[in-house]
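User: I'm putting together notes for a lab meeting next week and I want to include a structural view of one of the chains we've been expressing. I don't have a solved structure, so I'd like a prediction I can at least talk through. The sequence is below, exactly as it appears in our construct file.
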Amino acid sequence: MTRMNLSALLMAGVFSLMVAAAMLAANGREGEAKPPIVDVATNGAPAGGFGEEVNGLRAKVSLARDQFGLHEPIVPRYVVENVSQAEQIIWHSGFWPNHEILVRDVGGKEPPLTAEGQVRRHAFSPGGERDKNAPWKLKPAQQDDTEGKFDLTKLYDLSKPGRYAVQYVYEEKHGGWEGRLLSNEANFEVVAKTAAEGSVEKRRPESPK
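Assistant: Thanks for the context. Below is the predicted structure for the 209-residue chain, given as structure tokens.
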């Protein structure tokens, strides 16, 4: 065997060892724990619907479905979860004395507030009153969903068909848990439907003059 052939065999052997090592390393990585899936819709928060964790709490708002007819009640479910290792105190005083509901259209603008919505929004204005009436203790891993069941059509004028998103904000700085907690955003659509069948309403063609 010539020296050139011997060198070629050695190089081939080295290359085979490198390929085998790479395959073993790849197989080892498959068994490792993978990072959590990131949901872009929740601004980088782990998938599952919750908003970003703030000082040991996180919040989630959800709807029974993503499409509603005109003048149909739209009632979200709102959950606050304690993800810390310590007990947290939150306040129950209804929306909006220390909670705020935000609805925006696809352009990021809020629809007009109803008269009731304006009264509740005043609690967040300068000089607005934010009464607290009941402290609620949340143990680690405990969830609270006793607030937030408000009909959005009572707070916002949603009489115009379109796509919207709702987000809940809990803000407190007067004892217990303190901070500004934003939920995820839940998307929904308001469509024109007939009262009888619930189907999408179609405009009748105008009669020729």
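A couple of points you could mention at the meeting. The chain is about 20% helix and 25% strand. Confidence is low (pLDDT under 50) at residues 25-47, 199-209.

User: Perfect, that's what I needed.
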